Amino acid sequence: MNNLSRRHMMQQAGLGLGLAGATTMLGPSRVDAVTPSQVYASLPVLDEIDVLVCGGGAAGIGAGMAAAQQGARTLVIENCTFFGGVISWMVGMEMNQMRPKGMPRSDTIERLIKQMESYGPQSMRFLNKHAIIPNVEYFKVAVLDCFDAVNCDYLVGLRAADAIVEDNVVKGVVVATRQGLMRINAQSIVDCTGDADIAHYAGAETWIYDEGMLGAMTLGSNYNHWQKLRKTFAGGRDKYPLLPKVDIIRQVAGCDFSFLNNEGSLVLGNRCAVDLKQRTETETQLSRQLVQNVRAMREFGDTDELKNAELVGAAQQVATRESRRLHGEYTLTMADIESGTTHPDTVAWRTGGIDVGPGGLYKPNGMNLFDIPYRSLLPIKVDGLIVAGRCISADHIPSLSGKSIGNQFAAGQGAGTAAAVAAKRGVLPRKIDVGEVQAILAKDNVDLFPANRSTRA
Fold first, then answer.
1. DSSP letters spanning 322-352
2. Final residue in a domain of this structure, among 320, 336, 351
């Protein structure tokens, strides 16, 4: 699944958004001389800002809040019409590691938790010391309120379509809007797309694990009768082959129905989220999976609740555990997660389990709290870009280790802080003093070097 550099492919073929037309105009002899930046120069400028955060999931929220809090003019853009990423579209999934060991991770993350609590007990509940079960509709509003509180700008319903690169520095992003293609110029850009889209567009080295099974994709779903909804039926898989083998069932906060999380696409075999055909097959087959799920409950269930089960709703899209990620200056390895390696340039840390999907190929075993060094957020060659979220530079199992929501918020906060420092100092993200970032995080009550690195929750 190794990728051909998208930028190399565009330059060789003379293709890309708007590039084919320009090639025709300039003639075949000029194809190799045309760069995407030259083609995009004529696009209308949607905004010019200090920090642009692409992707409004957990990492993007953390990055946007952190950058704005440092006084940087910050814009977070999101393809969906709401923020939260997997938290919001998975219709009730728990937000793990928000308070590891019951302790706050940062004032920034606490701001979001307290904002949710301010709406009343129906908005969220604590599953245990570290995890929150949200009502996602309240969560979506909490994000907006937190962005407004720190003067972080945001736009929804537009998609990052390409990166604008000049002299190997990412200067902006092309966005596809309902008004047509536009550009956003920024001093620092944070890629929180989950699939490392901006890094890929910019020609940074990215890769996809190709030596075995990728982490599962799952389509979250809601069912009635949460208290007694258990898949205790037998024999249903012969008739309904798409049924997952393992489910996790939680009550949605403030609601009398359940959220079901499972191993999703593992029943389909290996599937890649950035391959168009495989993604389409996964999305459509997992929709069929949900219907088979409820039919099997009603047909093979051994309780009245199962026999009267109803599918209440489903996620807007699948949640992806693993896809394309950055090849950065430092790649997290098995040694990091097994030994709890510390790094002098850490900007966040991870803790939790190894998640390829419930019932997946690996079990949490011997994993310690481990650092996310700033180098793991930086492309090897391309400048002007910081990557955060699940697409940071990490090997297969390390990428799936401790990738819980709280960990993604924390990494985003580190990345957003670094982006703001780079914009303020007028330097590339690679050139900043990481000690300055760490000092800012410490003022936000982030403990980057906790003494006990063995406790996961």
1. ---EE-BSS-B-HHHHHHT---TTEEEEE-S
2. 320
**CA 323 – CA 333 distance, rounded (Å):** 17
Q: CA dist 127 to 58, 98, 124, 132, Å?
A: 19, 11, 9, 6
Is 256 buried (19+), middle (13-18) or exposed (0-12) by CB count in 10 A?
A: exposed
Distance CA 201, CA 161 (A): 8
Identify whether the C-beta of residue 189 lies closer than 8 Å to the C-beta of residue 173.
Answer: yes
Cβ count near 149 (within 10 Å): 13
Number of independent structural domains in the chain: 2
Residue 279 and residue 273: Cα distance in Å, rounded?
5
Span of 180-184, 303-307, 443-447 with lowest mean pLDDT: 303-307
**Alpha helices, DSSP H, located in 27-178:** 36-40, 58-69, 86-89, 107-117, 136-149
147, pLDDT greater than 60? yes
Do 70 and 209 have their domain in common? yes
Confidence at residue 325, expressed as pLDDT on a 0 to 100 scale: 95
